Amino acid sequence: MGILPRYVLAEVTKVFLMALAGLTLMMMIIGVVQEATRQSLPLVQAVRLVPYILPDTLRMTVPVTLLLASTTVFARMAGANEVIAVKALGISPMVLLWPVLALAFLLSLVSVWLNDLAVSWGRNNIQRVVLDAAEEIIYSMLQSQHSYASPFFSINVKRVDGRRLLRPTVTLQPRGSAAATTITAEEAELHSDRTAGVLKLLLRNGTIDMGGKFSIQFPDVREQEIPLSDASRARSSGGLPSCLAMGAIPREIALQRTAIDRFEQSLASQAACQMFSGDFAALESDQWKVYAADHTDLCGRLYRLMTEPHRRWSAGFSCLCFAWVGAPLAIRLRNTDFLTSFFLCFLPILVVYYPLLAYGVDGAKGGSIPPYSVWAGNLFLLPWGGRLLWKVLRY
């Protein structure tokens, strides 16, 4: 590598690392504080979130800081007439640009990996940290507010004395349309069994009301087990396509296609039986609306599975697209004020690229447009950057 490419690469890398460290630290602190506040996590558990939030933060900050570094360095060089001096010596500006584009390509591959790591390893471990801290979170909320609630579990107490919960009222909301179960007791105590994945509630001298239908009294100690996933406020991934590793997605797509085929064959067989038996009224029953909704859900998950790899690759390669546009635009502007160059470049990206990406992702997940439509934002930047580069090389 010659002197000029090494010089440009060193300058861009220096600015990139400094900006990346500052922006990542700021966004990571915000992310940890938001998650800790939302989940009411104690300080020790909040600190445990840092390594799991880091990939999610980096996948957002790497493209932006690379754009900032590219515009900063090339705006300064163009403003100081260094690019003109290079061209006057008969050297193509590509000598200055190719190291940055090569760096952007490598960072794009890293960003693809970060996108995959953030949504699979990162989110799943954030959920695990919250589940592990469920007992501490509940005790903390009961001490300060005398109440705690999750979608399937709530508890109110009159007072907390150490580990003892005085006059607790526990409501268990089962999944589905079944009635809730309410338990009142003289006192209770919580114990979290992380190995079994349950929250054990030890109640003494109380009453169990089974949805108002009947009640049971117990004078002694009764143990009630609640799944940690129900007791906690942690958002369960539940096998969501957005939380799967890319290596697992092809297998999930094949399984989902098989499930859809079997479901459609089952519906076809059932419809044929009803037609041959002359039970045409059954074909217009509400049950077929339920089948249609189930079929829509199955297809919706398939669309999301097919969209995820495209989304992660396109988001990762925004690094290359940002540098492809930012570097030649900064040279064309010839403005030593790097912030002006950065915002003049980032504003069209913010106004056009991100809306196109969001539209592509939403449409592809809904099945209204093909999965590769998520590349629309990248395809918008490529000709724009190519036009700018052509002008830089020609004039």
Key words describing this protein structure:
eight-stranded antiparallel sheet; single chain; 66% helix; 2 domains; alpha+beta
Number of helices: 13
Q: Which runs of at least 5 residues are low in confidence (pLDDT < 50)? A: none
Helix content: 55-70%
Work out the count of structural domains: 2
- Count every beta strand, where a strand is a DSSP E run of 2 or more residues: 8
Seen as an oligomer or otherwise, the chain set is single chain
* Overall outline: flat
Order of helices and strands: HHHHHHEEEEEEEEHHHHHHH
Assess the beta-strand content as a share of residues. 5-15%
Give Rg in angstroms. 29 Å
Structural classification? alpha+beta
Q: Give the N-terminus to C-terminus distance in angstroms.
A: 25 Å
Report the average pLDDT across residues.
Answer: 87
Quick one: biggest sheet? 8 strands, antiparallel
Model description:
This protein is of the alpha+beta class. It folds into two domains: about 5-130 and about 305-395, no CATH class; about 140-230, no CATH class. Helix content is about 65%, strand content about 15%. The protein is built from 13 helices and eight strands. Strands 1, 2, 3, 4, 5, 6, 7 and 8 form an eight-stranded antiparallel sheet that branches. Helix 5 (about 95-130) packs across helix 10 (about 285-315). The model has no long low-confidence stretch (mean pLDDT about 85).
